[in-house]
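Below is a filled-in request sheet from our internal design queue. Each sheet records the structural input a requester submitted and the sequence that came back. We keep these sheets so that new team members can see what a complete request looks like end to end.

REQUESTER: design group, bay 2
PRIORITY: normal
MODE: inverse folding
CHAIN LENGTH: 203
BACKBONE (tokenized):
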């Protein structure tokens, strides 16, 4: 009986927990131009703390589509958030993320690189569908299955072995939506995989 109750609890836990991969709205908000001189520094943003050696970066919008606003979550190689977003989210990610100031040319707003340092070994590799590079690194996660190390209290995190993406829980999604922060896209990890190039291939 105890075994059945434990199994039911685990199943219920997996059903009720929802997590989202955080992406930028690339169609309606501006892109930040990538400066190669920052490549080495930005490549360290995979869970490593950078706050003690941080010097503000000088960035600029892409020249294409200058009419697009930056919004609260412009597209860049690493997450960038507005000061409005920082003020709302900062108290929710104590000890698991850093807000590192950047300067964006011709912007009168303050922006910050959002460095999530919370890495969780939470992916159930056996029950997930994963594409790998030839060297064994994860290329893409197509179907997510999380193990029991994760809880609904994990607000922001990166997945160990796939640190390039940031994930949030339902609470954070609701807070961002309810505060009308723009430029954020939430990809539900419980939904079936959709090839990002599918629409392009149909055209």
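RETURNED SEQUENCE:
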């Amino acid at each position: 009986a105890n075994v059945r109750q434990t199994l039911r609890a685990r199943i219920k836990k997996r059903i009720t927990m929802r997590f989202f991969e955080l992406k930028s709205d690339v169609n309606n908000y501006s892109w930040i131009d990538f400066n190669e001189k920052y490549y080495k520094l930005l490549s360290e943003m995979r869970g490593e703390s950078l706050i003690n050696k941080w010097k503000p970066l000088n960035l600029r919008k892409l020249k294409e589509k200058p009419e697009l606003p930056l919004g609260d979550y412009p597209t860049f190689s690493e997450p960038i958030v507005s000061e409005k977003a920082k003020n709302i989210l900062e108290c929710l990610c104590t000890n698991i993320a850093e807000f590192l100031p950047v300067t964006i040319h011709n912007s009168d707003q303050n922006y910050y690189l959002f460095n999530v340092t919370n890495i969780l070994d939470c992916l159930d590799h056996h029950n997930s569908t994963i594409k790998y590079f030839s060297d064994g690194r994860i290329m893409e996660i197509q179907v997510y299955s999380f193990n029991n190390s994760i809880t609904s209290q994990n607000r922001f995190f990166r997945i160990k072995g796939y640190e390039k993406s940031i994930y949030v829980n339902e609470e954070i999604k609701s807070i961002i939506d309810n505060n009308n922060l723009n430029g954020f896209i939430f990809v539900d990890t419980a939904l079936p995989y959709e090839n990002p190039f599918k629409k392009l291939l149909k055209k």
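SHEET NOTES:
- The chain has a mean pLDDT of 87.
- The radius of gyration is 18 Å.
FILED BY: M.R.
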